[in-house]
Amino acid sequence: MAVLSFLPVLVIYFTLGRVEAQQPCCTPLQWQATLGVTYGQAWIDSNTAQAVQNLTAEFAFDWNKRATAMWMTGTQYSPLVPGPLPVHSAYIWDHATGVMWTVDLARKSCQHSELSKGPIAKLCVADDAMHVATTHLGPSQMVCDIFKFKWPVGEPGFPAIAAATVARNGCTPVRIGIVDGSPTSGGFFFDARVYNMKEGIHNTSLLSPPSYCTHGSNTTTANESISPLTKLFSTL
Ligand SMILES: *[C@@H]1O[C@H](CO)[C@@H](O)[C@H](O)[C@H]1NC(C)=O
Ligand SMILES: *[C@@H]1O[C@H](CO)[C@@H](O)[C@H](O)[C@H]1NC(C)=O
Ligand SMILES: *[C@@H]1O[C@H](CO)[C@@H](O)[C@H](O)[C@H]1NC(C)=O
Ligand SMILES: *[C@@H]1O[C@H](CO)[C@@H](O)[C@H](O)[C@H]1NC(C)=O
Q: Where is the signal peptide (predicted)?
């Protein structure tokens, strides 16, 4: 009996040990990629209003310059509006200057809001992440790990949950999903498939707002960001 109850403990110990050996796993310090994004938001109630966006985004993460950016093109679907709406906008989270830019690229109007100033966190699978599965992707059967961990947005004390698929070799992100909310209070989901990831920033314009934001008269100041999508990378 003593031996029998000892065995499962050993198994658990070795499983934890193997996962811990892969930690921490962080993306390169500078990279850009194309994201295929599905983003949805639901408000309870008004008969549970919702909106879904189907987007292609150019994404850039630059730890050295303390900035993250997402330039999006796509369509928003919502029963709140008569038809699908085109989305053509950009978000730039610039922690070096302490400004978040929201740019309406179609109207050429810009909004800046305050962001914490200072160093940013690396983009990592959290140390206490749970290893969910191992998969093999693509013709080369690249080994990927799927992790689940807490993502620092959401109501205070209730962080969102992230599920990330990353290549075991190099921690290259393959897919990331972030979910926040509950059936009673509404919430959002963000699902991004990562294509053409390149290490380094190959297009530095991605990390700066268009010149009409800094030189024109079309820039307004917002006190708080409106959409949870704008908060996703603001707490890095
Ligand atoms: C979302 O966009 C992709 C790429 O443009 C397209 O193939 C897909 O059909 C779209 N999905 C919906 C629900 O509109
Ligand atoms: C660089 O990014 C900007 C902003 O998204 C875009 O307008 C421009 O076409 C890109 N340049 C290249 C060479 O991809
Ligand atoms: C300011 O915004 C208006 C419409 O909102 C647009 O027509 C105009 O081109 C913008 N001005 C500049 C300098 O980009
Ligand atoms: C932003 O805050 C300032 C000062 O607290 C206030 O005067 C202004 O009306 C607010 N602007 C908006 C758009 O809420």
A: 1-21
Q: Tell me: the pLDDT tens digits for 166-184?
A: 999 889 999 999 998 876 6
Alpha carbons 127 and 21: distance in angstroms, whole number: 10
What values do phi and psi take at 116, rounded to 5? -65, 145
3-state secondary structure 144-191: EEEEEEEECCCCCCCCEEEEEEEECCCCCEEEEEEEEEECCCEEEEEE
Domains and CATH numbers, the chain: 25-231 (2.50.20.10)
Look at ligand 2, atom 5, and give the residue with the nearest C-alpha.
206
Query: Are 146 and 134 spatial neighbours (Cβ–Cβ below 8 Å)?
Result: yes
Q: Give 54 Cα–ligand 1 centroid separation in angstroms.
A: 6
- Residue 163 CA, chain-centre distance (Å), reads 10
The model's pTM is 0.82
Per-residue model confidence as pLDDT tens digits over 36-93: 999 998 887 666 678 899 999 999 999 999 999 999 999 999 888 888 999 999 999 9
Q: Is the CB–ligand 2 distance for residue 203 below 6 Å?
A: yes
Q: Which atom of ligand 3 is nearest to the CA of 218?
A: 1
Residue that has been written with the tokens 């290490």 in this structure: 199
Q: How remote is the CA of residue 163 from the centroid of ligand 3, in Å?
A: 40
Whether a cis peptide bond, with omega within 30° of 0, leads into 28 is no
